[in-house]
Specification:
mainly alpha, 10 helices, elongated
Length: about 300
């Protein structure tokens, strides 16, 4: 159960319309007024990423990643707009609810974009090495992401409604925590599935390099995808720890930690996949090598070696 629940903070907001001697900033939602420079910078960065990812998605016709990145970046822009609203009034409930909902949900959209990349990798190297069909990886992990989004959204909604009605929002808090925890669990499953596929492919391609038709710098993309994944995982673990200690925890009151572990981590995760966009590296091939073509290629290689 989360301690120092949201209804205590909302109750303060009803009595405090602005920061004053009677309503010090230390008693506000975060214990500080979000600063303009980092939050404006993050809003601008996500706004720019929204434009670039939309243009790249349209250019490469990668509609799935276009939708995922666009929804994620738009959520970040709205969320940091909420934090900017709280600069002049740290007790601004509307700004608080905007940022807590939108910034919490946004990384789930970026996770979905990364999940789509696994199906592209499977198509590139061939489904014969995979335990599942390429589309099945997409269905499973995107379904997990939708469940995580639903839990976090429902939990945030239940908490905010309960708090505004001066009721105990513990149920909503716990549902939101379950959503964040499930997101971490889904990311771990994704890592296991990706490593499993890599080990199955490695023996075939370790002496040959990437398959015919692959981008010559495909390994750079894999490094970028790994960095993006790692940044999202760090952010999710941070938010689980932050929320598990309660809405009034000391970790939640440290703006520098938030800017680095939430803001900068997600900026890096998003921008590295602007630079190494999946559409350029994975989705230019329309057909995966069939089992028959792979067998013929193997026979021809054996024949040339004999």
């Amino acid at each position: 159960m989360l301690v120092n629940t949201l209804h205590t903070l909302v109750a303060r907001e009803r009595d405090c319309e602005s920061v004053s001697d009677e309503c010090p900033v230390t008693e506000s939602f975060y214990g500080y007024a979000p600063s303009y420079p980092p939050n404006i910078a993050l809003l601008v960065l996500f706004g720019l990423a929204l434009f670039v990812h939309s243009a790249q998605g349209y250019y490469y016709r990668t509609w799935g990643t276009l939708i995922a990145f666009s929804l994620g970046c738009l959520s970040e822009v709205i969320g940091y707009g909420g934090r900017i609203m709280m600069h002049n009034n740290a007790y601004d409930l509307n700004g608080f609810l905007l940022q807590i909902c939108c910034i919490s949900l946004a990384p789930a959209f970026f996770s979905a974009a990364i999940y789509l990349c696994l199906s592209g990798i499977v198509r590139l190297y061939g489904e014969s090495f995979a335990r599942l069909k390429a589309n099945q990886y997409t269905y499973i992990f995107v379904a997990c992401d939708i469940l995580s989004l639903a839990l976090q959204g429902a939990g945030g909604g239940l908490s905010s409604v309960a708090a505004q009605n001066n009721e105990d929002p513990t149920t909503g808090d716990n549902v939101m925590m379950a959503g964040l925890s499930f997101q971490v669990f889904s990311l771990l499953l994704f890592a296991i599935a990706t490593i499993d596929y890599y080990l199955r492919v490695r023996q075939r391609y370790q002496n040959q390099g990437p398959p015919q038709g692959a981008h010559p710098r495909i390994r750079w993309f894999y490094a970028a995808l790994g960095l993006s994944y790692t940044c999202i995982m760090i952010r999710c673990i941070y938010r689980v720890i932050e929320l598990s200690n309660g809405w009034n925890s000391s970790l939640m009151k440290r703006q520098t930690d938030f800017v680095i572990l939430e803001g900068i981590m997600i900026v890096v995760a998003v921008y590295i996949l602007n630079i190494f966009h999946p559409g350029q590296y994975l989705f230019t091939r329309n057909k995966a090598p069939s089992a028959e073509s792979e067998e013929e290629e193997q026979k021809s290689r054996i024949g040339s070696e004999s």
